[in-house]
Amino acid sequence: MEEKEIGLYIHMPFCKQKCYYCDFVSYPNRYEMVERYIKCLKSEIVQYANENRIMHEHGLEPKFIIKTIYIGGGTPSSIDELYILNVMETIKANFEIDEEAEITIEVNPGTASKEKLKTYREAGINRISIGLQAVQDRLLKSIGRIHNYSDFENTFEWAREAGFDNINVDLMLALPNQTLDDLKESVKTIANLKPEHISVYSLIVEENTKMEKMVQDGTTILPTDEEERAMYWFVKDYLEKHKYKHYEISNFAKPGFESKHNTDCWKQKEYIGIGAAACSFMDNKRYSNIESLEQYIKNIENGNPNRNLMLNETLNEEDKMNEFMMLGLRKIDGVNIGDFKKIFGVNPIMKYCKILDKLTHEDLIQVDENSIKLSKKGIDLANLVWEEFV
Fold first, then answer.
1. Which residues pair with 251 in a beta bridge?
2. Which of these, 145, 137, 191, lies nearest to 167 by C-alpha position?
3. Can you list the positions of beta strands (E) in the chain?
4. pLDDT attached to residue 204
5. pLDDT at 101
6. Which end of the chain has fewer CB atoms surrounding its CB within 10 Å, N or C?
7. In this predicted structure, what is the pLDDT of residue 47?
8. DSSP per residue over 230-280, as a string?
9. With contact defined as beta carbons under 8 Å apart, do 365 and 375 qualify?
10. In this structure, is the dihedral angle defined by the CA atoms of residues 224, 239, 267 and 348, taken in order, positive or negative?
């Protein structure tokens, strides 16, 4: 059978301290579990590879070619770099990795070192995503970050010295007590460093986080919606003037440096998630591993790895079309009408004529013969647009 390009997501759920806004599955200061966890990760990688090899040999499944690898968390850089090297060696020994594969690891400046970054590069990782969030130390402290701006400067320099020529920097806007001038300083400072990619996310106050409690208690004050939108449009205008392409609602890249892993997800490409709480999308099915670190390890150590899997949903054709529209409208270029017709055999303008007429009338989208995309007003009210396809 033919080959199939897929992505791999590797979840490292360890961190030194949970940021106040974080609702990802992570376990602060559980480093006594790292060695057992890494052994289980490697076992899961081998299991998926062996299953694919056997199915392929019997003509039941195409051979997997790994197009992207993303090592996220948690804080992958908070564990010993030799564990990361070991995981990469296991992937290479069991899967065929595309020569042009994008291989990313998330790094927190508070846990980075020159030696770690050098080891990542030697392991074959070719893209670093550094979580900075802001250049002002007072703002970093207010959201529970464990690093300061000086730590970031060192991390960025070490990454360049290690040979990384594809670096993303994460920034956040609408942080507690953040002003427009603060945001301008952060964006200008980072753009001056010329990373290949910059992500800028608006703070979302998630349920059951320390940030939610701080807001409810009145111990922190967030910028108004008007202030948040002023920050967003400054980011867009400034980065575009400095030759960054705004290709997704929160992402900017130098030409050719758009995130392949994220772009594939927005295009409904398939991927396998490895590790506790990791999500996968294969054969129109979304499933995930259980969140419990202890149970994930126990199931694999006891020879019952399939007990970790939970089927979340099976997408029918209608689901896939709706999701294609919703994810496509995250991209600044929008939904390509030709691509939609090629995949689903129907014109999205005909399929969604009532919804598109409504959104066009409200000046939230722009439709032409080639694409359907958010208008300027639609970018500000994107959630209202996406909800139409849920």
1. 199, 248
2. 191
3. 3-12, 14-15, 27-28, 63-73, 96-107, 127-133, 167-173, 197-202, 245-248, 251-253, 271-274, 279-282, 285-289, 309-314, 335-336, 365-367, 371-374
4. 93
5. 98
6. C
7. 97
8. HHHHHHHHHHHHTT-EEEETTEEE-TT-S-HHHHHHHTT--EEEESTT-EE
9. yes
10. positive
pTM: 0.96
Are 6 and 271 in contact by the 8 Å Cβ rule? The answer is yes
Q: Residue 167 pairs with which residues in a beta bridge?
A: 128
Please give the full DSSP string across 359-385, using - where no structure is assigned. HHHTT-EEE-SSEEEE-HHHHHTHHHH
The confidence score (pLDDT) of residue 1 equals: 66
Please give the Cα distance from 222 to 218 (Å, whole number). Answer: 10
The DSSP symbol for 218 reads T
CA separation for the pair 307, 290 (Å, rounded): 8
Question: How high is the pLDDT of residue 241?
Answer: 98
Q: Which domains does the chain have, with CATH numbers?
A: 3-266 (3.20.20.70), 318-387 (1.10.10.920)
Task: Give pLDDT, residue 186.
Answer: 98
Cα 188 from Cα 180, distance rounded (Å): 12
pLDDT at 321: 97
Tokens coding 179: 């002003």
Tokens of 164: 């990384």
> What is the Cα 43 distance to its own chain's centre?
24
Cα(262)–Cα(253) distance, rounded to whole angstroms? 13
Structure tokens, 184:
């301008």
Q: What are phi and psi of 294, to 5 degrees?
A: -65, -45
What are the per-10-residue average pLDDT scores of the chain (390 residues)?
A: 93 96 93 98 98 95 97 97 98 98 98 98 98 98 96 98 98 97 98 98 94 92 95 98 98 98 95 98 96 98 96 96 97 97 97 97 97 97 95
Q: Provide the residue type at 162 as one letter.
A: A
The per-residue pLDDT for 246 is 98
Structure-block tokens of residue 26: 């992570």
Residue type, 190: I
